[in-house]
């Protein structure tokens, strides 16, 4: 059955909360407090979207070098969710983690790039599966996390690699671009965390990795800098709230580019795996 193309993400609203938002994800988010969860202990304030795996474009690609992972290897490797997997950092992270022996679950909007990346990882002997994912849609995030959980029985780590950078001066008044950056960079990370957090709490272990720059805010980087500060605040709050869940923040602009970022992410996850061994 041919796979449909990923839907386009909404461009964003006006930024004026007093007016009806043109962003469907934002409108849905405003209704969260009126909806009760349908999965006890998991969806605390919204039901899982009713959709089949085919409708969610689930693409299983799970073989490794031997074609059938050994029980020891299966038990040792982590199941790692990577959002924004077709971006430079997301793709580099997926390759690095797969090369370390982890099972990577890729999420992104661009289905053609997802399939190519999954095939590349599989050809190199990695273990991978991928899902079409719009991080600005809370239902997509929940379906993404639950599909991995139902398939593997656990979600060990989340890497929030989805991000948008659109520098502009404030007097350029690019409200749609500002909305898009905040929706993807901040709301997307929150939705992904909300999707995996109950699973990690239940397991008593987990690791969340956010990408946020700690450098100073300069001209044309007001909104981008604000989203980075928000991710730092989210990470610090989560670290203080959840003693059993590791939280890491990696700078996406470190020297060495995307590969250096990917290696840093691999290093923090490796430390967690060794600490739990």
Automatic annotation (TrEMBL):
This is SDR family NAD(P)-dependent oxidoreductase. CDD domains: SDR_c (cd05233). Gene3D superfamilies: NAD(P)-binding Rossmann-like Domain (3.40.50.720). Keywords: Oxidoreductase. Residues 78-258 form the Ketoreductase domain. It holds the Pfam family adh_short. Belongs to the short-chain dehydrogenases/reductases (SDR) family. It comes from the Bacteria. Residues 1-31 are annotated as: Disordered.
């Amino acid at each position: 059955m041919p796979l449909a193309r990923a839907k386009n993400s909404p461009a964003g609203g006006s930024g004026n909360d007093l007016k009806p938002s043109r962003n469907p994800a934002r409108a849905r988010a405003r209704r969260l407090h009126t909806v009760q969860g349908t999965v006890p202990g998991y969806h605390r304030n919204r039901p899982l979207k009713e959709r089949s795996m085919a409708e969610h474009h689930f693409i299983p690609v799970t073989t490794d070098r031997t074609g059938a992972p050994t029980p020891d290897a299966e038990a040792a490797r982590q199941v790692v969710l990577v959002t924004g997997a077709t971006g430079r950092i997301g793709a580099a992270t997926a390759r690095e983690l797969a090369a370390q022996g982890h099972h990577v679950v890729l999420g992104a909007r661009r289905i053609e790039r997802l399939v190519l990346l999954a095939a590349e990882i599989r050809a190199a002997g990695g273990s991978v599966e991928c899902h079409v994912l719009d991080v600005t849609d809370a239902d997509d995030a929940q379906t993404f996390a639950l599909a991995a959980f139902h398939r593997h029985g656990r979600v060990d780590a989340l890497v929030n690699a989805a991000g948008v950078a659109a520098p502009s001066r404030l007097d350029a008044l690019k409200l749609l671009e500002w909305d898009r950056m905040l929706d993807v960079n901040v709301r997307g990370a929150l939705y992904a965390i909300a999707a995996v957090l109950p699973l990690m709490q239940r397991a008593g272990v987990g690791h969340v990795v956010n990408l946020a720059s700690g450098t100073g805010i300069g001209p044309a980087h007001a909104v981008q800098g604000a989203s980075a500060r928000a991710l730092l605040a989210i990470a610090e709050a989560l670290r203080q709230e959840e003693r059993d869940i590791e939280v890491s923040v990696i700078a996406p602009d470190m020297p060495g580019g995307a590969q250096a970022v990917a290696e840093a992410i691999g290093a923090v996850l490796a430390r967690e795996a060794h600490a739990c061994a």
